[in-house]
Structures are given as C-alpha cells and as structure tokens.
Amino acid sequence: MSTQSYSKKLGIVGKPNTGKSTFFSAATLIPVDIGNYPFTTIKPNRGIGYLRTPCVHQEFDVEDNPKNSLCLDGIRLVPIEMIDVAGLVPGAWEGRGLGNQFLDEIRRADALLHVVDASGSTDCEGKICRKGENDPLEDVKFLENEITMWLNQILKKDWGKMVRTAESGREDLISILESQLSGLGIKRFHILESFRKTDLKADKPSHWNENDILKFLDILRAVSKPTLIVANKIDLPYAENNVKRMKQAGYQVVPCSAEAELALRRAGEKGLIEYTPGDCKLKVKNVEKLSGAQKNALNVIQEQILYKFGSSGVQEAINTAFFAMLQMITVYPVEDSEHLSDHKGRVLPDVYLVPYGTTARELAYIIHTELGDSFINAIDIRGKNRIGEDYVLKDRDVVSIVSAKKRG
Ligand SMILES: Nc1nc2c(ncn2[C@@H]2O[C@H](COP(=O)(O)OP(=O)(O)OP(=O)(O)O)[C@@H](O)[C@H]2O)c(=O)[nH]1
Ligand SMILES: [Mg+2]
Questions:
Q1: How many Cα neighbours within 13 Å face the side chain of 390?
Q2: Per-residue pLDDT tens for 327-354?
Q3: 17 CB near ligand 1 (under 6 Å)
Q4: Is the CB of 119 inside a 6 Å radius of any atom of ligand 1?
Q5: What does the pLDDT read at residue 107?
Q6: Relative to the CA of 22, which ligand 1 atom is closest?
Q7: What is the DSSP string of 354-388?
Q8: Sign of torsion, CA 267 272 274 279?
C-alpha cells in the first residue's frame, strides 16, 4: 500500500479516562490497553484507521482491484494515520502529568479528535465521579487553553528577538512565525488565515500586549489544529443533554459510543455479524453461535446506539474530520482511461485524499513529480471531457492524466 493516502494524521486527545484508546482500538482494530482509571495509556499508540466513502466502481460498472485502499461491498476505505496519546491534565503545558509528551505528539497531527466523556462521570483529571457531575464543556475549554498556553510558551522564548527582527525590516513577522512554528505542523497559510481573523497588525508586534499574543495564538490553534468534539459514552445518562449544550456553545460535536463500536468490530472480525464501520445497522450472521448475553448486548447497541444516533459515531468522527473540517476530497487517478486501470491492469487501484481546491496538475505532482512536470492535460472520465491543468477536482472524480512522458 502506498503511504501517500495516509499521510494525513489524526490525533486522538483529551483528559484521561474518556475512551481515547477505546476509540483508537475500534477504529484501527489494534488491541491496546483500556482501563477505567487515568493514565492507562502512557506511550502513544499509532495505527491506521479508515475514511469511508462510496466507491465509484459501481457507477462505472466495473470490478475494482484496490491497491492503496480497500473496497468492501461498494464502500472505499481510505487509510489514514491515527495516534492515541496519554491523557492531558490541567497544567500539562507546564509539564504536569504526561503533558509535554502529549503536546509533542500532536505536533504532527493535521486535525484533532477531542474525545470527551459526555456523561460527565469523570473529573478533570479522569478520576471516576458521580455521573453528570463533571461538565464536558469545561473539558473542551480546558484542552483549548492547554494547547494555546503550550504555543505561547514556545513562542515566548524568542518573542523579543522576533519583534526586533520584524520591526528592523530584515524579515516580516509572518515569515518569522512560519520558521519558528514549522516544527509544530503550522504552515504559512495557517498563519495568514489567523491574521485575517484578527485586527492585530503584523508590522508592529511591539504594540502587542500579552493578551494580544494569547488571542492570536488561540486563533492560530483553532486554524492549524482543527478540533472535532467526540462526545463519547453517549450510552450513559446525561450525555445527550451535554451534547446539546456543547452544540449550543458553537462546537462541532459527534455523539459517540466507542465501546459499542469496539464490540461491533470485534463481533464482525469473529464472523458473528455483518457490519461495516459507519453502518446504521448490523446483521447477525450466525445466530446459533451467539450466547444469550451477546444477543442481548448486540440488541442494545442496535436499538440504543445505531438506530437512535444513526451510527456509533466512530466512523462519522473520522469522516467529519477529513471531509468537513479539513475539507478534503477523494480522487481516483487511472492511467488507462478506457479500462480505468493502471499499467498493470488493476482497475481503480488508488484513491487519493487531497484538499479541496487541488487542481489536475497539482494532483499529477502529488502522484509523481515527473508526472506533474510532463503534464499535458487530463481526462475527466465521468464527464468524458478533456480538462486543463487548472481544473479544480471534485470529490470522487476519476481522472486520467495525459503526460508527455509515459510512466512505466
Ligand atoms: N459507557 C462507556 N464507557 C466507555 C466508552 N468508551 C470507553 N469507555 C470506558 O472508559 C474507560 C476508559 O477507556 P480508555 O479507552 O482506556 O480511556 P483513555 O481516554 O484512553 O484513558 P487514558 O489512557 O487513561 O487517558 C474504560 O473503562 C472504557 O471501557 C463508551 O462509549 N461508553
Ligand atoms: Mg488510553
């Protein structure tokens, strides 16, 4: 499998004991330690999860042979990297708990899934408390603050020097910030976007006070580490009401039961049920193989989670992060426009995950530098059109790139 399509990374974050590892395990099927106490996870878990998208092969009436992805009953599963880190406690930015390690790990994440205990049954350090006692909305704000303070701590070290350089005219503040923050996965377009969202002036940073810096970093955090709230433990009391409250406060929230998804994935692996992640229903395959307790548990999941919320939320969270938050699209490049295959005859072998706005030529470059350099035009297979280098790709486009050089 090529690594290109899972070069995007999702960080699973939150305070201890909210179900991060359960979520990770359900998404990746990697067995990891899960426990109802804080700091079950110390070393981060890394694995491959999947984005779910309807495959185009049925529309084109062909049988496909996926190479960089999977196709299950008409559903393309596109690999993405996931990382499950240690829980974060207040003061982590100053090194409390396993703070620095956590923050170091999220440098590489393109987006964050903030798993909260929506039932409010764990306190701010992840210790079990009375159900409903803890307010997950506070947890959401706490995590934002931790990341902003962490950015502030990094920036503060050299702020004086950065201000002098910017105001001397040697280098502008945007370029200075770009090189200072590049190790945190923060790109120039994130910095530009953050400036667009403030009235702070990049040419006079000496006029910025402490609050201005924090305000800017708060925006930069939101822009560079877009965060989806995964309202986990939706199966417990108080959770639904807290989802409503978090949505009312303006957050993008996906209700979730990671535990239910893990049970379904495991039952699927054992061949007991038919279930593809993201489905709104499960189908029992071997009813005689199920114990009474298993039947009951599956029934409860079907009725109380899948029917009620539309899915367990795990797949929906991954899809929302890529499609809605990162605004990515899927594209199927093929070499042979007649057979929709590569040069080895594999039909619809690859699906690429690219940001919305990617042009035909940019796609060629993503596939291979040489293909980008020798790009002539491309064929939009669905529309049966020739398309130029500036054509902006749409989700689920199938394209064949015509180049001066034949790749072999
Ligand atoms: N009721 C319910 N419990 C869940 C759910 N998901 C996870 N849990 C439970 O929550 C507890 C913590 O789960 P973990 O996945 O270990 O949590 P974590 O966030 O990785 O914890 P740390 O590694 O300690 O930070 C375990 O007892 C899980 O079984 C869920 O959807 N519903
Ligand atoms: Mg864990």
A1: 0
A2: 999 999 999 999 999 999 999 999 999 9
A3: yes
A4: no
A5: 87
A6: 15
A7: EETT-BHHHHHHHH-HHHHHTEEEEEETTTTEEE-
A8: negative
